[in-house]
Amino acid sequence: MRIAMIGTGYVGLVSGACFADFGHQVTCVDKDGDKIAALLRGEIPIFEPGLDALVAANVRAKRLDFTTDLSRPVAEADAVFIAVGTPSRRGDGHADLSYVHAAAREIAAALSGFTVVVTKSTVPVGTGDEVERLIREVNPSADVVVASNPEFLREGAAIRDFKFPDRIVVGTSDERGRKVLGDVYRPLSLNQAPLMFTARRTAELIKYAANAFLATKITFINEIADLAEKVGADVQEVARGIGLDNRIGSKFLHAGPGFGGSCFPKDTRALVKIALDHDVQLRIVEAVLAVNDNRKRAMARKVLNAAGGNLRGKTVAVLGLTFKPDTDDMREAPSLPLITGLLDMGAKVRAHDPVGIEQARKELPDIEYCEDPYDCLRGADAMVIVTEWVQYRTLDLERVKAAMAQPVVVDLRNIYRRDDMEALGFIYDSVGRGSDTAV
Question: What is d(CA 60, CA 314) in angstroms, rounded to the nearest whole number?
Fold first, then answer.
């Protein structure tokens, strides 16, 4: 089938490359001429494991192409996917749909023959209705079905998630639309991926509800971690104990410095706003947002306490800047409020990240960056692990201790064992693992 993918951001580029790998003919469209020129040169604008090889292979096979002009790809397409950004609107937390609406108008002008237009961007309930209205306003004679097909990709594992999904949600009540999207995803039938057809508004709400629920699990275990520290319990064992209950499950029960990234903060805020617009109050989701924001700020105080209550003039080495491993995404990363808090306390901050330094410089231009974690630790009064990159799990701890001025380690991801660290002479603090001496 012929597919036009509007937008070459994270969702659009991964989805376009995977569709091409299924054997479809895919053209990815973006208004950013520099980005398209870079893609045509084989340069990938985001870090996602395996994506560069996947794009290169399908470009060589002539199944994947890039352009700034959507006219021809849309006119020739069986399905057009809208995968543009929907950031939080400045000032009120609503999703900014200006890019979606602009794409809908341009698509409408280029449509030729029967086409399914699919919103893959994360959009509020009812956006499909507005996209359809805009298309018919611009092109009243268009033979078009507007559907919703939300993405459920994890950064760092997006290609596997696309090819081996838990489910594929398609929101349309039109039989022609169902057939086209069934054909688009037919290659996944061998993986027995459940294809769920539902109404368009239901599909739009599924995406927000899923992200809000996962954010709630993270926030819940973070609050339990605070209690565990006070009562002398181990939150990791608590998480395992409740996660073995198949009604709860073990995923997203890892205590840490709070959730970040491009999805959970933005989508939970948008869901609250959607609910308020319909006179519904989502008190649990509102609490999740408040607790998560407070937690990120509290992490700097955790470092302060571990370092003896005074950071003025001291050097803090921060390991890990991106919101999670295997991505260069700095959006709403816990490192940002943490480092800001440390600077406000008078600390000097030195930082390392395997791939996120270039992006981090845009957000934190006034700290020192190091290309090697051991250089980052040299002379530091405290080490803080913020992102659980695998490189930090295998550090030579004897070398770490020798490099530091003071052997203070604050492990916000619980990647080390307290007994091991204290045996090596570190002053060690982690998240939700209370003292063994507590009763």
Answer: 53
Whole-prediction pTM: 0.92
Question: Which pairing describes strands 382-385 and 368-369: parallel, antiparallel, or unpaired?
Answer: unpaired
Quick one: fold of 217-429?
Rossmann fold (3.40.50)
Report CA-CA distances (Å) from 409 to 104, 345, 381, 386: 51, 18, 9, 11
Helix residue spans in 95-126 (DSSP H): 98-110
What is the rounded distance in angstroms from the CA atom of residue 276 to the CA atom of residue 297? 27
Indicate the angle between helix axes 98-110 and 127-138, nearest 10 degrees: 40
For residue 439, give the DSSP letter.
-
CB neighbourhood size of 277 (10 A): 12
CA triple 18-200-117, angle to 5 deg: 50
- Cα Rg for the chain, rounded, in angstroms? 24
Instruction: Kindly list the averaged pLDDT for each block of 10 residues, start to end, along the chain of length 439.
Output: 96 97 98 96 94 97 97 98 90 87 97 97 95 97 97 94 95 97 92 89 97 97 97 97 97 96 92 95 97 95 96 98 95 96 97 96 96 97 97 96 97 96 96 66
* Delimiting residues of CATH 3.40.50.720 domain(s) in the chain: 2-198, 217-429
Neighbours of 206 (CB within 10 A): 19
Question: 369 pairs with which residues across the strands?
Answer: 351
SS3 state at 25: strand
Query: In sequence order, what E strands does 320-407 have?
Result: 348-352, 368-369, 382-385
Beta strand pairing call for 348-352 and 315-319: parallel
Catalytic residues: 263
What tokens does 269 get? 């805020």
Architecture of domain 2-198 in CATH?
3-Layer(aba) Sandwich (3.40)
Beta strand segments in 86-193, E: 115-119, 144-148, 168-171
Residue 168's DSSP bridge partners are 195
Q: How many helices (H) and strands (E) does the chain have?
A: 18, 14
From the list 168, 176, 202, 197, the residue with the least C-alpha distance to 18 is 168
